[in-house]
Amino acid sequence: MEAAIEAKSLSKSYKNVSVLKDVSFSVQKGTVFALLGSNGAGKTTTINILTTLIKADGGTAAVAGYDIAARPHKVRNEISLTGQFAAVDNRLTGRENLLLIGDLRHVADSAKTAADLLRRFGLEEAADRGVSTFSGGMRRRLDIAMSLIGSPAVIFLDEPTTGFDPEARNEMWRTIHKLAEGGTTVFLTTQHLEEADELADDIAVLHQGRIVASGTASELKKLVPGGLIELTFHDEETRDAAAKVLGKSYAHTEGEGATLTITTDGTVAQVASIFVGLEDARIEPTEFSQKVATLDDVFLKVTGTSREDE
Ligand SMILES: Nc1ncnc2c1ncn2[C@@H]1O[C@H](COP(=O)(O)OP(=O)(O)OP(=O)(O)O)[C@@H](O)[C@H]1O
Ligand SMILES: [Mg+2]
Fold first, then answer.
1. Domain range summary for the chain, segments of one domain joined by +
2. Does domain 3-221 have CATH number 3.30.70.2190?
3. Does 56 score more than 90 pLDDT?
């Protein structure tokens, strides 16, 4: 497979503060890649380097086959960027925004392109209304529609769903799925693990300017020990008694609704010993299940911090 983006050892500092350190990854053509990280991790800085808005201090990168330092104009011809903050013109209508970009990019039939995009993004009815009357979700969709004019090979989306309610977010997810189905390479950043899980073929976790883990969602989940057992008890008192018995041998966390989550190495021996321990203490769980690791667990494991702690 051919790479649409190839980044090697990118670094960037502001004054003496190093914000990107040795960042490398590659994104295959026609796939969705998510750069996952918390506030200040360096996501926008990475996007700004790859889209040639700023220069890296060290390292190299190629986008759509062109070196970003040597051929920035070629790179710009092949890509589009939807920034972290919407870039639509509020004084114009939705259609006018699209026509403007169509003309700027010398699209042959910008009226038809605009009409197609309005339909594709569910903005037909609102097309001739001022954008100032659009909801946040509609504005963001228009922003992405604008970025597709001229059929870029690679599209960069910086936090495409931040600030969205669940409905608008699901709609944006559908939009991004459709882009990917159409063969566009999508590079997106997100702070949300479930978003990376939902959308991305490959994920890189960026933490304090470094890639601390990368792979598919299921590869990343394998970084977390396989054997999380969740036990539910009749009441909290029983749960606490179980925690006392099992806590001697196993790491555990107490959860809502009298639950107890035990970390095992996934072997039958450990799982068996948990149930033997409960039986010996005459404690009956009302329910038990094996929990599959989430990307949240991965984030905790590779960064050493829970996102809530930050
Ligand atoms: N022009 C600049 N001058 C100085 N420091 C900067 C500049 N731009 C970014 N930084 C710093 O670099 C670090 C990474 O910033 P960046 O915007 O890339 O993070 P981010 O992952 O996009 O965060 P967010 O999720 O908040 O958008 C931050 O500590 C930020 O303060
Ligand atoms: Mg950012």
1. 3-221, 227-292
2. no
3. yes
